[in-house]
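look at this record:
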Amino acid sequence: MRRFALFAVPFFLLSACAQEKPRASQSVAARPHAKIPPQDFAPGLAEETPPANEAQLVNDPSAPLNTPLCGTALREAAQTGTGIYSNGLAVGNPCTQNACFQPLTGTFISASGARSVCR
């Protein structure tokens, strides 16, 4: 008898909870969806201005190929990048011949000693 009471009481408690209908989900489903208004951008932001004829991107001058700025770690990273992405050295602009060129990032050491991005 005691076992029956242990099984019956939780059964009735759980069955009472199961009979309730969720009201929040019905009210959310009953509401119409709001329409999103069309998106407009501020004047001049959505269109690109054509570059001037004189404006051409050029690479910064490179540091000498035997510069001490490269260091062992940078040379090893360049060799690893060359092994992974060797096509970048065969095809492309002469930027790949610059000092400490990194094929994975497309950067090199410029004459100022800073890293520069190939363009």
Q: What stands out?
A: Strands lie at 107-109, 115-117. Residues 71-117 form one domain. The mean pLDDT is 69. The CA atoms of residues 39 and 46 lie 11 Å apart.
